[in-house]
Design a protein that fits this description.
It is a single chain. Helix content is 36%, strand content 21%. By secondary structure, it is of the alpha/beta class. It has a single domain (13-156, 210-278), classed as Alpha/Beta hydrolase fold, catalytic domain (Rossmann fold, 3-Layer(aba) Sandwich), CATH 3.40.50.1820. The protein has an 8-stranded mixed beta sheet, with helices on both faces. The protein has a two-stranded antiparallel ribbon with strand order 4-5. Helix 9 (230-242) links the parallel strand 9 and strand 10 (247-252). Helix 1 crosses helix 11 (264-279), helix 4 crosses helix 5 (167-173) and helix 7 (194-205) packs parallel to helix 9 (230-242). The longest helix is centred in the middle third of the chain and has 17 residues, at 97-113. It starts with 12 loop residues before the first strand and ends in an 8-residue tail after the last helix.
């Protein structure tokens, strides 16, 4: 069987390939080995305007894969000894099944074809990418992810609909008329709403769900005008608390929808979270 990931070498590298019908990338750290100790790996889900294509990648329209803008969040993880993979499956899909399936397939391909540690897999979702990420974590990848970072993420469709600012974008992504009544739209998306999906899983699994879910880090501006702080990370954290799941709230006072723009300080918080969450009793990666 032909591998989807191009032939890898020792050390740091970036390769592009297709998986789940989307262009993907894999970036390995400097101490990556083909046959030695496997490295932890994070699947990164980009937000509204990023892309991945053959030979190129951008978290937003003005960024490159290397050193500019939002890409510091990837570079900081790679420099810490963590591999990072990502897919073109768009955050602007608002968590549709095709995006969720693409990330699940990418996870499986990376596990099968790269020397990464299946017991130290994480996911990082920014903005709209958070909805695809959380639907993957609570769906096809449940029980397989050790840690998740949710960065100014979309986690509560009801909050988005009632706030109206992005109601039309959300409903359009799901093929629902933008003028639909709020309550009807909320009911229609109930089983696909990241927050409501978690509540439904608690009904099914009770406290046992807490053992199936990853440790979660929420990285969110307290004044976020796009994805409300109370309506998204706080709302999901309160649900996670009821089933005993582990989480940490990183609340950035006075900050709006600007965790990417803040750059290095928040990138370092995300790195520290993953180093602790992925590395417990499993060898060492770089601090």
């Amino acid at each position: 069987m032909t591998n989807l990931i191009p032939r890898l070498s020792e050390g740091e590298q970036t390769v592009f390939f297709k998986s789940g019908g989307e262009w993907c990338y894999l970036r390995t750290p400097s101490d990556y080995s083909l046959s030695g100790e496997p490295v932890p790996c994070i699947i990164q889900c980009h937000g509204n305007s990023g892309f991945v294509k053959d030979g190129d990648y951008s978290i937003s329209s003005s960024d490159s894969l290397d050193e500019h803008g939002k890409s510091i969040f990837i570079r900081t993880l790679v420099d810490a000894g963590i591999a990072v993979a990502g897919s073109h499956a768009k955050g602007s899909a608002w968590g549709r099944p095709d995006a969720v399936a693409a990330y699940a397939e990418l996870f499986n391909i990376v596990i099968d074809e790269a020397n990464v540690d299946s017991n130290r897999m994480g996911m990082l979702g920014g903005g709209l990418g958070g909805s695809a990420l959380w639907s993957a974590v609570t769906g096809p990848l449940i029980g397989k992810i050790k840690a998740v970072g949710l960065q100014q993420a979309t986690l509560n469709f009801e909050s988005v609909i009632r706030a109206h600012k992005f109601k039309g974008d959300l409903l359009d992504a799901w093929g629902i008329p933008g003028e639909a009544d709020d309550d009807l739209a909320i009911a229609t998306l109930r089983n696909n709403d990241p927050l409501e999906r978690t509540r439904l899983l608690i009904v099914q699994h009770g406290d046992g769900l807490g053992q199936m879910l990853p440790e979660v880090g929420f990285f969110h501006g307290e004044q976020d005008e796009n994805m409300l702080y109370e309506g998204n990370p706080v709302a999901l954290a309160n649900v996670l608390k009821t089933c005993g799941a582990k989480y940490k709230l990183y609340k950035y006072e006075g900050l709006g929808h600007e965790t990417y723009a803040t750059g290095k300080p928040i990138a370092e918080d995300i790195r520290s979270f993953f180093l602790e969450a992925l590395n417990a009793n499993n060898g060492a990666v770089k601090a």
